[in-house]
């Protein structure tokens, strides 16, 4: 099965301490957790070390079909939108 295009199912919004990414539709909490673990190594092309230099915390909340990734730090909605468009870490 091909990887899911996260930019098509995500809403990125600025919050007080960073950016939230709400993913709705054909997503599971378990796979989002695995994606965040994989991305947080800084070894993925979508979320490199220059991105993680600005991140102070990553967390995941929600349940299947509606999962939110909370990215705290000096990140912008534009940065997250670019990362989502390039992401191949979510294995659908």
Strand and helix layout:
Layout: H1 6-9, E1 10-15, E2 18-24, H2 29-39, H3 49-52, E3 55-63, E4 66-73, H4 77-86
Antiparallel strand pairs: 1-2, 2-4, 3-4
Order of strands across the main sheet: 1-2-4-3
Number of DSSP helical runs = 4
The helix content, as a percent range, equals 25-40%
Instruction: Tell me the domain tally.
Output: 1
Which word captures the global form?
Answer: globular
Q: What is the H/E order?
A: HEEHHEEH
How many DSSP-defined strands?
A: 4
CATH architecture, by name, is 2-Layer Sandwich
Determine the N-to-C terminus distance. 6 Å
Task: Write structural notes for this entry.
This protein has 92 residues and is α+β, with helices and mostly antiparallel strands. The chain has one domain (6-86): Gyrase A, domain 2 (2-Layer Sandwich), CATH 3.30.1360. The chain has 4 helices and 4 strands, in the order H-E-E-H-H-E-E-H.
Based on the model shown, name its key terms.
alpha+beta, Gyrase A, domain 2, globular
Write a concise synopsis of the structure shown.
By secondary structure, the chain is of the alpha+beta class. It has 4 helices and 4 strands. The protein has a single domain, classed as Gyrase A, domain 2 (2-Layer Sandwich).
